[in-house]
Design goal:
three-stranded antiparallel β-sheet; 19 helices; alpha+beta; 38% helix
Length: 516
C-alpha cells in the first residue's frame, strides 16, 4: 500500500511539474511575440531558449487552441545526431579518446582495450589519420604510441556543430564521413512560424470548463472566459463485454432454426458413453473412428454406470446377427466397449437419445436441432481443430426422402446467406444415402466441406421402436467454417483457440446472417 501511495504521489508530482514547465513556456512565448512581433523559426527559438523543440511546439499549440497565437508550418531537411553521435559529441570522438588515453608514453594494447570501450573503433580511425601507431619492438607486449605530436578532434567539433543545428556549414566530404560512420542522419523537421492570434494577450488566462453555482451567485461568470464545446468530439467507449463471432453466428443459426419450426435438443453431455455415441447409431465397434487416434477416451471414470437394458439387447442383436432387413456386422459385440466413456465426437449422440425417447413416448412427427461443442483427436490445420462446435438438424416424419433433405438444406443455407452449395455422395455408418455438403470459400478460393447429411438407417431407428414407415433426415454442420466464410477469416485457429486476437473479438462487426 505504501509503495502504491508513493507511486501515485510521484505521478502527481511529475504531472504538476510538467504543467508548471508548460505554463512557463507559454509565458515565455507570449513575451517573445509581444517584444518581437513573431517567432519566425520555432527550432532556432528552442535552441536560443535552451529548450526541447517539441516542448516549444506543444506550448505553442496549446496557445493556438485558445486563439492566443497562430502557427504556420514548413518542412526543412536538417542534419541531426544519432544516439552514438550524441555520445561522442559529449565525450569526444573514439579516435581522440584513444589519443588522449595512451598519453605521451603509449600504452599496451591489452590494457587499452580493457580501459576504453571504444578502443577498437578509435584505434582504426586514429591509425588512418596517422595519430597513433603500433610499436612492436617488444613482440611479446606490443604498445600503442603517438605518431603525431599535436592533433585536434575535428570529428568531435563537427558533431557539436550538427548538434547546434548548423550541419549544413560542414564540408560535404566530412558530412559524408560522419554519415558513413552512422554518427549523423538527414532528417525532415517540421518548423513553425508563430504569430499573434485573435485573442493575443501578454498573460494567458486559463479558460473555465464549467459554470458553477458560486459563479452564478457572485456574477463572476460574466468576467470568465469559457472553453468552447466541441460537439464533433467522439465520446468515450462504454466499458462493456464483447461477443465472439461464434456466439453471434450461433445466435443467428438458432434463430433460423426456430423460425423454421425446430425444437432445441438438450446438449448438456460433453462426456458420453460409446453406446449412445456409436452403437445406437449402428456404427460397428471395429470402426476406425472408434480408435484412440480419432476419439478422446476418459481415464476416470472410464465406463458409464448404466444403459437401457432392453434397448441395448436389441442393438446388440442388430449388430451381431442383423435385423429389420439388415445382415448386421456378424461381429462379437462387446458390452465393455459400449460402456466406455468418451468426449462426444458429434452431436448425433444427442439425437440418438432424443429419438429413442420419442419412440418410448409414442411417435409423432417433429423437427429438432442442437448447437454445441464436440471433440475429435484430429491434426490441427487451417480448417481443422480438435475441439469445435457442431450444428445438427433432424426432421422425423413418415416417408421422407433424399429430395426432402436437399430441399431443406438449400432453404436452410439460403437463410444463412450461403448460396453456393455442392453435394457429394459419401458413406456414414448410420445414414444411407449420405451426402457431404460443400461451400465455396472466397478467401481460400476453394470449395470447403461445411457439413454432412443423410437419412438415418432402419438399423438405427427400428431398434428404438419407431414405426417401419418413419424416416429421419439429418445434417450436421460445423459452426466455425461458415463463420470463417461470413467474417472472411482464412485460418480457423484465428477464430477459436489460444491464437484468437482479443482486438478481433472487440471490433468484429454485427452478424447479419442471410440479410441483404
Amino acid at each position: 500500500v505504501k509503495i502504491a501511495n508513493l507511486t501515485r504521489v510521484t505521478c502527481l508530482t511529475i504531472q504538476c511539474l510538467h504543467r508548471q514547465i508548460t505554463f512557463a513556456m507559454d509565458a515565455t512565448i507570449l513575451r517573445s511575440i509581444n517584444d518581437a512581433g513573431e517567432i519566425p523559426n520555432s527550432l532556432e527559438y528552442a535552441t536560443q531558449q535552451g529548450a526541447d523543440h517539441q516542448q516549444v511546439v506543444g506550448a505553442a499549440r496549446s496557445l493556438a487552441a485558445d486563439g492566443y497565437v497562430e502557427m504556420q508550418d514548413s518542412e526543412v531537411s536538417q542534419w541531426i545526431l544519432t544516439k552514438e553521435g550524441t555520445l561522442y559529441s559529449e565525450q569526444g570522438s573514439p579516435e581522440y579518446q584513444v589519443y588522449l588515453a595512451i598519453g605521451e608514453d603509449g600504452m599496451a594494447l591489452p590494457e587499452l582495450n580493457k580501459s576504453l570501450k571504444v578502443a577498437k573503433i578509435g584505434m582504426s580511425q586514429a591509425m588512418q589519420r596517422k595519430w597513433v601507431k603500433m610499436d612492436k619492438s617488444d613482440k611479446a607486449n606490443p604498445r600503442v604510441v603517438r605518431e603525431s605530436a599535436d592533433v585536434s578532434d575535428e570529428t568531435g567539433a563537427d558533431l557539436k556543430t550538427v548538434q547546434a543545428g548548423e550541419g549544413d556549414s560542414i564540408p560535404k566530404v566530412r558530412l559524408d564521413g560522419l554519415k558513413k560512420r552512422k554518427l549523423v542522419s538527414l532528417s525532415t523537421v517540421r518548423l513553425y512560424r508563430i504569430t499573434k492570434g485573435a485573442s493575443f494577450a501578454i498573460e494567458r488566462r486559463k479558460k473555465v470548463a464549467d459554470i458553477t453555482a458560486d459563479m452564478v451567485t457572485s456574477g463572476s461568470w460574466k468576467e470568465e472566459s469559457f472553453k468552447e464545446y466541441n460537439f464533433n468530439a467522439q465520446g468515450t467507449d462504454p466499458a462493456s463485454g464483447n461477443l465472439h463471432p461464434l456466439l453471434k453466428v450461433r445466435a443467428a443459426y438458432r434463430q433460423i432454426f426456430l423460425e423454421m419450426g425446430f425444437q432445441e435438443m438438450p446438449t448438456n453431455r460433453w462426456v458420453e458413453s460409446s453406446f449412445w455415441n456409436f452403437d445406437a447409431l449402428f456404427q460397428p465397434q471395429a470402426h476406425p473412428a472408434r480408435d484412440m487416434h480419432d476419439t478422446f477416451f476418459l481415464e476416470k471414470p472410464a465406463s458409464c454406470l448404466s444403459l437401457p437394458e432392453e434397448y441395448l439387447q436389441i442393438v446388440k442383436r442388430t449388430h451381431e446377427d442383423g435385423d429389420f432387413g439388415s445382415y448386421g456386422y456378424h461381429c462379437n459385440w462387446q458390452r465393455s466397449e459400449a460402456e466406455k466413456n468418451i468426449m462426444r465426437t458429434h452431436t448425433t449422440a444427442v439425437s440418438s437419445r432424443v429419438l429413442e425417447q420419442l419412440a418410448r413416448d409414442g411417435f409423432k412427427p417433429g423437427k429438432y436441432f442442437s448447437i454445441d461443442r464436440v471433440f475429435r483427436n484430429e491434426s490441427i490445420d487451417a480448417t481443422h481443430l480438435a475441439e469445435f462446435h457442431q450444428i445438427e438438424g433432424i426432421i422425423i416424419d413418415r416417408n421422407l426422402g433424399l429430395g426432402d433433405l436437399i430441399g431443406v438444406l438449400r432453404d436452410f443455407f439460403h437463410r444463412l446467406g450461403v448460396t453456393q452449395l455442392r453435394f457429394k455422395p459419401a458413406y456414414n455408418p448410420y445414414t444411407e444415402p449420405s451426402m457431404e455438403i460443400f461451400s465455396f470459400h472466397p478467401m481460400l478460393k476453394k470449395w470447403v466441406e461445411i457439413g454432412n447429411s443423410g437419412i438415418f438407417r432402419p438399423e438405427m431407428l427400428r431398434p428404438m421402436g419407431l414405426p417401419e414407415d418413419v424416416t429421419a433426415i439429418a445434417w450436421g454442420l460445423s459452426l466455425e467454417r461458415p463463420t470463417m466464410i461470413l467474417y472472411g477469416i482464412p485460418n480457423i485457429r484465428e477464430l477459436f483457440g489460444p491464437k484468437v486476437s482479443l482486438s478481433m473479438v472487440k471490433t468484429n462487426p454485427v452478424c447479419r446472417v442471410g440479410q441483404e
